[in-house]
Amino acid sequence: MKQLLKTAVLASALMPLASAAFAEKITVAVGHQSMCTDTYTAGIVIKELGLLEKYLPTEGKYADAEYDVVWADYSSGGPITNQMLANKLNIGVMGDYPLIVNGAKFQETDSLRSIYVAGTGYNLKGSGNAIVVPVDSDIYSIDQLKGKDVSTPVGSAAWGMLLKAMQDNNIPTAEYALKNQSPAVGAANIAAGKIDAHSDFCPWSEIMEFRGTGRKIYDGSETGVPYLHGVVVRQDFAEEYPEVVNAFLKAVIEAGDWIREDPMRAVTEMEGWTGVEKEVLYLYFSKGGHLTLEPTIKDTWVDALKFNHGVLVKEKAIPPLDFDAWITEDYIKTAYADMGLDYEADKASIVDPATANAGLPMEIWHARDGVSSYPSMPEFLTAVAAMQGTGAKLNATYVYDIETGLKLFGKTAFWVKAGEDYATFLRKGEAEAYAAANGGSVITFDEAIADFVVEG
Amino acid sequence: MGGLGVIGAEIRQNWPRMILNGVLVAALFQLFMLVALIVRFQALPNYVTGYDWFGNVIHIIRSTPSLSDMGPIIWEEWLLEVGHMNYDYGAGISEWSLNVIPSRLFVLFVLGAMMALCLGLMRGDTCSRTASGSMRAATGLGALLIAMTNATMSWVVCCATPTWVVGLAMLGLGVSSSLALERVGPVFSIFGFALLVAMIFTLAWRRARQTAEPKGALSNA
Q: Do residues A384 and A364 lie in contact, with contact meaning Cβ atoms separated by under 8 Å?
């Protein structure tokens, strides 16, 4: 009896140890980029709000699972791919060009594969990339870059955009000097006027504009090639833990919802997490912003990725990529279904800023009172004039480009006054053409505001 | 004694010097790259990150099914990263870094050892000044090619990872040209090693021949 009791006590003491021995530890390591806005819904937002933990499975084969969620922040997509190859990251978030390199590099191996499981967000026409010149530069169009020094982070989406933009404008490589510069160095050189132009990805161009050091002369939307970001996963991880991948994608969807719910709250939080100014982030994440947060994989995106792969093959001779084997909608479809959402409806919907942003109100971000909207230009300019008249601090003002529908900072837009009407443009050339066609003139933002200053 | 015998004898006699030279070349090249980065970018490094190289290699071996894939992945594993973080924008971006990679340290160690062997074999060589100069030049060229293609500097020109062409780009070579050259790096490296191996065998053969041929005529045979 004594022996039996001893055995029972020993067995009960060992039970927790035995269960611990069977509890599987699952490491979910995610590589993200806190300095690339378009990755935020699959990166910094999920991390900071703990959304992945919310959706990680805890039933069935995961009942005893212990999760170790690791987040690694990178300046670019390339190192994420290397870390995924070494299996130190299971999931990576990056822009279109690095995504392609990721898929191609994995397919180059004998035994490893990555799969493209979802997008994070997009701009249909390619906004997000842009070419910027020093704010005092006399360069106003891409044609004027002939014979100039142009820098870009080579290998990035902005580099791909620059190459296509130059090709589209019949500017051969020999007619400009291409320099290889990182975003921070490019931005610093633009501020110091050390380079004629710099091409960069989101949100660097807008940071330069917001800080008053740079001015856009070319927006990625002019290439007409969608700019998108997405999520890649090691295939072996996805096959072993499909429910974890689904959990991640549900977190991506919820992160998008959280931003749309209250963009001002979201960008304010994100400023704290990333150090990127909230006013710049608002340009991306607010209603009418550059970024449409939606993770479906559209046929148009696949075509864009194939086009981008062609550019890379031409320039860098990267390995071939079997898109059919690489791209799978299964995981994101399951995530949609689990959340009771209509995948096909979202997939069929494509937001074109030119039409979607038509008629959206202008906005003023008052430092104390937050963002207020104004349906017409006179109301907007009257409000700006009144606020400035009281000495109020305005963080930013937002208007829309007549041509592309892109959201712009009021201070960087080209303004046209035609009679009593005001219109805003991204590019000077189009502003001048509009002014000529409508008997108006190109004016500054300050001049437009001055028209509404009430004396006394 | 044949050429191989001469090489064997030289290694047996001078192995401590070869090892020392190998270690010195591997270490000094890291220092050279760091100084080059500091001078080029006019900034001192402001961060150092150590990596669990052994742990990572074991992890890669466990999680990579194909043996042929393991090598290239382990080849790129880092031991140490020393660089400069730019905090002007956002949470900071690593502008440039020197990546100490054990696989490249090994290559540089072998390079240093081979150079010591070459120099050792040259020491007793009685060839003309012109021939000696040519051999030294060939050895230097081989060493340069190997060292150049094993540079492990990183310059965050987005999506760039440590690659030998960063060195060329830093020296001002055009972006397109640098990228075009990136994939021929291994060819350059192999060519460099081939040059060194050829020099070692040439020098060994010459020494073997000198040993076999008696100097001058025997007067009292």
A: yes
Locus of tokens 């304010």: A268
- Whether A125 is in a domain gets the answer no
E strand or H helix that includes residue A300: helix A299-316
Residues A169 and A202 occupy one common structural domain: yes
Asked whether the beta carbons of residue A185 and residue B95 sit closer than 8 angstroms, the reply is yes
- A88/B59 CB distance under 8 A: yes
Whole-number Å distance between alpha carbons of A134 and A329: 43
Residues A342 and A386 in one domain: no
Residues of B in contact with A100 (CB under 8 A): none
Would you call A1 helix, strand, or coil by DSSP? coil
Does the pLDDT value for residue A422 go beyond 90?
A: yes
d(CA B89, CA A188): 10
A374 and A445 share one domain: yes
Query: Is the CB of residue A76 less than 8 Å away from at least one CB of chain B?
Result: yes
Closest CA to A234 of A352, A103, A97, A74: A103
- Which of A27, A75, A85 to mutate: most B Cβ within 10 Å? A75
B91 and A201: CB-CB below 8 Å? no
How many C-beta atoms surround the C-beta of residue A1 within 10 A? 5
Considering the domain architecture, whether residues A285 and A206 belong to the same structural domain is answered as: no
Give the closest-approach CA distance of A374 to chain B in angstroms.
Answer: 31
- Same domain membership, residue A89 and residue A233: yes
Q: Does A414 touch chain B (CB under 8 A)?
A: no
Give the CATH number for residue A199: 3.40.190.10
Angle at Cα B153 formed by Cα B152 and Cα B157, nearest 5°? Answer: 130
| Statement to judge: residues A63 and A187 lie in one domain | no
- For chain B, the domains span 3-46+96-212
Residues of B in contact with A77 (CB under 8 A): 158-159
> Rounded to a whole number, what is the distance in angstroms from the first to the last CA of chain A?
102
**Are the beta carbons of A178 and B175 separated by less than 8 Å?**
yes
Q: Measured between beta carbons, which residues in chain A are less than 8 angstroms from residue B157?
A: 153-156, 180-182
- What span, in angstroms and rounded, lies between the C-alpha atoms of A146 and A425? 24
Per-residue pLDDT reduced to its tens digit, A264-321 = 999 999 999 998 899 999 999 999 998 999 999 999 899 988 988 887 777 665 788 9
Query: What pLDDT, on a 0 to 100 scale, did the predictor assign at position A19?
Result: 46
Out of A88, A181, A317, closest to residue B56 by CB: A88
Instruction: Tell me, yes or no, if A129 comes closer than 8 A to chain B by beta carbon.
Output: no
- Closest chain B C-alpha to A445 CA, distance in angstroms: 27
What average pLDDT score do residues A368-373 get?
94
ipTM here: 0.72
**Chain B within 8 Å of A181 (Cβ-Cβ)?**
yes
Same domain, A115 and A11: yes
Q: What is residue A123's three-state secondary structure?
A: strand
Q: What is the span of the domain harbouring residue A142? A: 130-223
Q: Is A120 an 8 Å CB contact of chain B?
A: no
Distance set, CA A195 to CA A38, A131, A132, A187, A198 (Å): 26, 12, 10, 10, 7
CB distance A331 to A117 below 8 Å: yes
- Do residues A235 and A286 share a domain? yes
Cα gap B89→A191, rounded to integer Å: 13
